[in-house]
Amino acid sequence: MFNHSAILSDMPPRWLNGEEQQAWRAFLTFVARLDDHLDRQLQRDSGMPHAYYQVLAMLSEAPERTLRMSDLARITLSSPSRLSHAVARLEENGWVRRERHPTDRRGALAVLTDRGFEALRRAAPGHVAAVREVMFDRLTPEQVRRLRSLFSTLTEETAPTPGPGPAAPAGRAGHAELTT
Amino acid sequence: MFNHSAILSDMPPRWLNGEEQQAWRAFLTFVARLDDHLDRQLQRDSGMPHAYYQVLAMLSEAPERTLRMSDLARITLSSPSRLSHAVARLEENGWVRRERHPTDRRGALAVLTDRGFEALRRAAPGHVAAVREVMFDRLTPEQVRRLRSLFSTLTEETAPTPGPGPAAPAGRAGHAELTT
DNA sequence: CTCAGATGGTTGAATGCTCAAGCAGAGTCT
DNA sequence: AGACTCTGCTTGAGCATTCAACCATCTGAG
Questions:
Q1: Which bases of chain C are contacted by protein, using any atom under 7 A from a CB?
Q2: What is the DSSP string of B45-111?
Q3: Under an 8 A CB cutoff, do B14 and A124 touch?
Q4: pLDDT of residue B157
Q5: What angle do CA A144, A147, A152 make, to 5 degrees?
Q6: φ, ψ of residue B167 in degrees (nearest 5)
């Protein structure tokens, strides 16, 4: 048996060329700025980190403002552990409540409380303004189109996802767009 | 006197339109994937987080493999505090050493040790492979150009930086490109 | 039915980051 | 010189995230 990773790692690394380097560094710089800006703004004005905002936002769009923990974790791009801790914290604030899943007794549901919805509603305008300030107000509509196109490509499922795939994410509820 | 922020916050928020939403979500998804992928790969294969890799990489390019803490902080896009903690940790590993600044006695210098350079050299191929895997191998050269162009725009200094600006970052040293 | 493995979720320890406070040295003004 | 402020850097506490266990429940094979 050959060790495939050894074979792979024996190939000389393909370093980034000039263009790629520039793209990479500019990208890293922007992401750093962005994370910093968003987290600071939310923490300062609304007392929550960006990750928690996303949890509240996703819940606010869900039917009954309720989602199963595992689904919420997937949607918010966080690990089960991270989400569990986060929801624990949000529960202390009275922004989210846990409920038991009606049929699967392993399951837990996260429910956005009225106070949580209020907190989100107050946080949203400042947040979207911050996003605009750092990103969209610096781009022309044409550039926004290119941006979307690029990152659609980059996030496309590359792995062979046979079958109908994980079904569209349960259509947006009729609420205002508090999701950014 | 009017309260300007009150005036600002009284304007109805400009929510993101459809195109912007799609761009934003795809972007967030990609960044989450990317951070996760890079941090995991580095932690697993080289025992350091991505932020520490960047510290080592920047030092490796500097003359004498040495930088003043404040400069290093700026280059690595981290706060002074963050860098101080990071260097403390790197010092424990024997990868970086602190020295006193020769003329400004407030100053501290971070020096990449030989062991640190070795660690970086071993980490670099896996890291650049990870970056390729998630980003550049999924883009055509034309797309890479657009990417660079977009993020150059987004990271351009917007504030009126009069004068000659903060001088080009001390040209790359002749070392191999371990910076990604 | 029963058992083995998969799935859903939580927990605690370890780590990195942020924030606010603090200290020492350098500049500046009189 | 003396007093003020600014800059450079560090520190400790608090918080978020990760990782590796862990328990409970569900599912499927025999």
A1: 7-12, 15-21, 24-27
A2: HHS--HHHHHHHHHHHHSGGGEEEHHHHHHHTT--HHHHHHHHHHHHHTTSEEEEE-SS-TT-EEEE
A3: no
A4: 75
A5: 125
A6: 50, 135
pLDDT for B14 beyond 50: yes
pLDDT of A166 reads: 41
- Locate B169 and state its tokens: 């970052």
Domain layout of chain B by residue ranges: 48-145
- The residue with greater pLDDT, A169 or B92, is B92
What's the gap in Å between the CA of B146 and the closest CA on chain A?
A: 8
Buried b (16+ CB within 10 A) or exposed e, B128-149: bbbbbebbbebbeeebbebbbe
What residues form DSSP beta bridges with A67? A110
Determine if strand C comes within 7 Å of the CB of A40.
yes
Distance of CA A137 to the CA centre of its chain: 21
Residues of B in contact with A180 (CB under 8 A): 16, 21, 24
Q: Do B21 and A144 touch (CB under 8 A)?
A: no
**Fold observed for domain A50-153:** Arc Repressor Mutant, subunit A (1.10.10)
> What pairs with residue B99 in β-bridges?
B109
Tokens of A91: 């529960």
pLDDT digits (tens, 9 = 90+) for B47-83: 999 999 999 999 999 999 999 999 999 999 999 999 9
Distance CA(B60)–CA(B83), nearest Å, equals: 16
For residues A24 and A157, which has the higher predicted lDDT (pLDDT)? A24
Fold of B48-145: Arc Repressor Mutant, subunit A (1.10.10)
- How many secondary structure helices (H) and strands (E) does chain A include? 7, 3
Sequence-distant (≥ 6) Cβ neighbours of residue B23 within 8 angstroms:
A144, A147, A148, A151
**pLDDT bucket at A178, cuts 50 / 70 / 90:** low
Query: A124–B155: do the CB atoms touch at under 8 Å?
Result: no
Tell me how close the Cα of A103 comes to any Cα of chain B, in angstroms: 31
Given this model, what pLDDT does residue A128 score? 96
Q: What per-residue confidence (pLDDT) applies to B174?
A: 39
Phi, psi of A177 (to 5 degrees): -85, 85
Report the distance separating Cα A151 and Cα A177, nearest Å: 21
Contact yes or no for A73/A51 (Cβ under 8 A):
no
